[in-house]
Amino acid sequence: MLTFIVRRTLWTVVVMFVITAVVFFIFFKTPGVDPARALAGRSPSPQTLAEVRAQLGLNRPLYIQYGLMMKRIFITRNLVSYSDQGQLIIPEIFAAAPATLSLVFGAAVIWIVMAIVMGVAAAKLRGRIYDPILMILALIGVSAPVFWLGQVCNFITQGGLHNSVFSWVPPLGYTSFTTSPLHWFTGLIFPWITLSILYIGFYARVLRANLLEIQNEDYIRTARAKGLSERRVLLRHTLRTSMITFVSLFGLDFGALVGGGAILTEVVFGIHGVGFLTWQALQNLDLPTIMAVVIYGAFFIVLMNALVDIGYAWLDPRVRPA
Amino acid sequence: MAAVVEQVSTTELRPAVAGRNPWALAWRRLRRNRIALAALILLVLILVLCLGAPLYAHNIAHDGNVLSPNLNGTTVVHGKVVPVMQEGGGLLKLGETPIGPTWDFSHYFLGADNIGRDVAALLLYGGRASLQIGICSAVLCCIVATIVALIAGFFGGIVDAILSRLMDVIWAFPVYLLAISLATELLTHSNGLQVGFLHVSATSLWTPTVIIAFIYVPYVYRPVRGQVLSVGTKEFVEAAIAQGASNFRLIFSEILPNVVSTVIVLLPLMIATTILTESALSYLSVGVQPPNVSWGTIISDGQDLLYTRPWVSLAPGIMIVLTVLALNVLGDGVRDALDPRAKLRVR
């Protein structure tokens, strides 16, 4: 187990290094693009250009440029946005993170609970009404663009029905939990539902398939033969084993959402999280911000993937390579 | 493999039981799958409609360039001439609202967008761009991934190790963030990208196509490489080696025909994914650039009109859902037809 953890950690570090290198090359070394001009925002003044060149050491060797960039992103954290009056980027990202985490956590709770309920129901009542419902949900999940679902949701809750049925829904935007827990909840409930719809169908189907597969295992028969109640067999034996796949899948999706996948949901609902920050940067072609978000987002995903792998190996010794 | 079976079927050893080649068998299985067939028909319908965009725009709706702003134009509703951009309400008459759906095929069927363009015509033109990017990037991605997978799986050893690690790194990147960084970098450069003799201008549809194709290569590479590895150990490959076949022949006439079905199963699912990615990038303004339109850019433009003219963003969204749904259903059908026991999935 220890060797596995060490190897996985080393590989994580390598991947992180390569990611920073790839991002560095995309932003600094795209053929025919002057990095100073690209990073300095739209129509920069000659002073800004000179300042960017000096700050990023663009006249110095490649590895020094890379080192300076990484120092500004991770150590001194004083990377500035040139198109936003020298706003410090890294603190801005960390200030926006709670909104993103609130969005993804809430959606995750909804989709996990719903997926478990529906997956178990579908496995128990095979061939009845649940199978087609899950099929349709899963198909919507893979076919509908989330930003469009969000617009439809906004159209319903903020449009014509806003004065009657949905008068309790606050205008689009994010209220932090510490400001007002009630507004935090009512403002996020529809973004949560929209985001979780994409995952409920898929997760429930995975769980259903897994439960049906496990039901034929020897140890389930043993549990029944011992005279355990059907509920106990389901909860303690079948469901518990299925959770291994479920949890690892969840770790990957959660990482992907926090690390950048939630951008579309944030933009359509006006939630000022990291994704919204990225989107604003895109509108101004503010490259330093985008670069920082990409690197931090990718790091989060890589870390989550490593944790999932280690957790998976801890739960299921068969996957540990010798 | 396929060639051998074909020969048998043409020589007709026994007239009663004619041999069929595996593609014909798969096609027969697909034809029997009514849902998949319905999806295929829907797709063809959408494709034909979108290809006929100029026909609709120039001969039925109105003439002139549908992609350019039409702020001062007029149209006909119930026999009366009305301006496309209507004055805002209230005392001050601030702002303009584009005309809503007229449900009249030849005059702004779905209304106008924020700069007075015919949404119905835009929808068809946007569909062309979305489908072109979706199909081209999926095909490009599958070709590149298959070639890399063939090389990695066939030569094995250090070649395989390097290529697979490279793919792992692309895989580790968050899909949208990688696409966004590539796209912004290319967009800031107004002259576009020059790689050797290939020139891609920044506003060209090929910019998003190439970006999307690139980010999904590892997703196709992994299953195909697995297939190459398993086919590579089969007896007929050994037989070919014993006959003294060259590496080139081994790869392209022994192994390739046996992994093509895996790629074909993945193709519709990949097109579904690439169309969704294109719309997401366009929504974030880093995909298709003006003056071109795609379903994603129409949805993005429609966001400001959501409460007054909801059809501007509802219509392209419905088109995306229908197209992607049909592709997913068709993809499942193709998988069942080609390899009924396979468990291959994109996700």
Descriptive account of the structure:
- The complex is a heterodimer of chains A (322) and B (347).
- Chain A is built from 13 helices and two strands; from the N terminus they run ααααββααααααααα.
- Chain A is mainly α and 322 residues long.
- In chain A, strand 1 and strand 2 form a beta hairpin.
- In chain A, helix 6 packs across helix 8 (181-214).
- Chain B has a domain at 126-338: MetI-like fold (Orthogonal Bundle), CATH 1.10.3720.
- Helix content of chain B is 64%, strand content 6%.
- Chains A and B meet through helix 1, helix 6, helix 7, helix 10 and helix 11 of A and helix 6, helix 7, strand 5, helix 11 and helix 12 of B.
Main traits of this protein?
heterodimer, A: 322 residues, mainly alpha, two-stranded antiparallel sheet, 1% strand, B: 347 residues, MetI-like fold, 64% helix, 6% strand, elongated
